[in-house]
C-alpha cells in the first residue's frame, strides 16, 4: 500500500480515548519526519488545550499548536487549538475559524480532513482513531475520494468504536489497523 508512494502530509483525527491512542502511535515518528502531521482531537469547550505541551515532552519530533497563517511544514506535529476549526489552505498554510460547531465539536475533524484532501489530494494520509461521534467519517471519505491513503483504527481495539465504525460504514478505507501497525505505518512515510 505504501510501496513507491510519496506523501506530503498526514492528518489524524480522534476523540474519546485520543490521548492514550496518540501516545501509542506518535512516539514512532522519527525526529526528521518528512511530512507534517496534523492532529485534531475533540476537547471540552471553554478549556485550553495542553496537548502540544503533553506530547512535546514525549516525542523526538517538534510539536506545536497550529496557528493561523502558519506554514504547514515537514518535521513537526501540529495540534489543532481549542475552540477553533483548523483547515489547511491550498498554499499549505493553516487557517483557523470559529464557525459554528460541527457535530457538536470545534475543532472538527471533518474540517481539517476535507481541507487537507483539497490541498494535498493523493499525497495525503488520513488516519481516524477512537472516538464517540461520527465526525471524521466524511473527512476520511473525502481523502479517499481525492486519492489519498485512508486508515481506520480497528474498531474492535478502539476505546470508543463509534468514530472508526462510522468511517467504515461510509466508505471502505485502504487499511484497518491496530494502533501498533498505525505506529509502524507512520514511521515508514516518505516524502
UniProtKB/TrEMBL annotation:
UniProt EC number: 3.1.1.61
Keywords: Chemotaxis, Hydrolase
Pfam families, A to Z: CheB_methylest (PF01339)
Gene3D superfamilies listed in its UniProt record: Methylesterase CheB, C-terminal domain
Gene Ontology molecular function: phosphorelay response regulator activity; protein-glutamate methylesterase activity
Entry's Gene Ontology BP terms: chemotaxis
Listed GO CC annotations: cytoplasm
PANTHER family (alphabetical): PROTEIN-GLUTAMATE METHYLESTERASE/PROTEIN-GLUTAMINE GLUTAMINASE (PTHR42872), PROTEIN-GLUTAMATE METHYLESTERASE_PROTEIN-GLUTAMINE GLUTAMINASE (PTHR42872:SF6)
Name of the molecule in the record: protein-glutamate methylesterase
Catalysed conversion reaction: [protein]-L-glutamate 5-O-methyl ester + H2O = L-glutamyl-[protein] + methanol + H(+)
Signal peptide: none
Amino acid at each position: 500500500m505504501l510501496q513507491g508512494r510519496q506523501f506530503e502530509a498526514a492528518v489524524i483525527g480522534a476523540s474519546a480515548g485520543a490521548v492514550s491512542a496518540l501516545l501509542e502511535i506518535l512516539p514512532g515518528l522519527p525526529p526528521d519526519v518528512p511530512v507534517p502531521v496534523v492532529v485534531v482531537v475533540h476537547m471540552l469547550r471553554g478549556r485550553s488545550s495542553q496537548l502540544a505541551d503533553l506530547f512535546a515532552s514525549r516525542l523526538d519530533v517538534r510539536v506545536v499548536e497550529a496557528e493561523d497563517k502558519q506554514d504547514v511544514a515537514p518535521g513537526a506535529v501540529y495540534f489543532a487549538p481549542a475552540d477553533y476549526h483548523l483547515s489547511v489552505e491550498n498554499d499549505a498554510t493553516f487557517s483557523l475559524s470559529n464557525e459554528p460547531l460541527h457535530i457538536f465539536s470545534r475543532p472538527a475533524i471533518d474540517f481539517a480532513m476535507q481541507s487537507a484532501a483539497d490541498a494535498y489530494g493523493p499525497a495525503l494520509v488520513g488516519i481516524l482513531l477512537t472516538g464517540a461521534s461520527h465526525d471524521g467519517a466524511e473527512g476520511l471519505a473525502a481523502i479517499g475520494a481525492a486519492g489519498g491513503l485512508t486508515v481506520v483504527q480497528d474498531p474492535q481495539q478502539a476505546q470508543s468504536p463509534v468514530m472508526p465504525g462510522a468511517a467504515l460504514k461510509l466508505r471502505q478505507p485502504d487499511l484497518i489497523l491496530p494502533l501498533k501497525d498505525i505506529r509502524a505505518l507512520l514511521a515508514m512515510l516518505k516524502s
